[in-house]
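Model it.
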Amino acid sequence: MRVLSIVHELDAGAGVFGAFPTWVPGSQPPPDVRDVDALMIFGGSMHVDQNDEHRWLDPEKELIRDALERGTPILGVCLGSQLLAEAAGAHPHRMSDPEIGWYDVEITPAGAADPVVGPLAPQAELFEWHHYAAPLPPGAVELARTPACVQAFRIDGKPAWGLQFHAEVTKENLFSWLDGWEESEAVNTDFDPDEIRAASVRRIEEQNEIGRGLAERFLAEAARA
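Modeled.
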């Protein structure tokens, strides 16, 4: 199966989801979606509405819309989830308060029955780092939530899932994000990077196991599709 990772920044890649051929928008021309059996779309410090600052977002969005219309299996994470939601008709927006750190994510009844997200039910503590969120796309099914926003969804009738949380992130990448705290938007929040780092030491290995399982189940669904 030909799986393509879309990676926006080198320290925000596939992580524990696996090693696959990678497309970095802006540095390479878009691939032909007909040559791809499944897409994994990852995060980045840029935002879904920054098309003017990141001109490569337009061709990436076109590729995602094309893949969604073709029924290509898709797994989007954080920014990737928001891009998928937009392709499906939602309008991602800046949150009044970002989520950065470890959060209890509630799995909905539909999520508990979902082949990818289901084993996380009834809840899981997962890592978040996002200033934007996407409402549920038209016709999509909400699979997980926090009080702040939708945390996971599936496009109804399509093998396409969005995850707002960072189940893919390795300890090394997570710590590199924290190392860059002073240069990130997070510096303007009340979150404490040292507290997040300490919590991450305790929790990252368990989440890595969760992340590997999520990726394996998505790939199994993609193979069936």
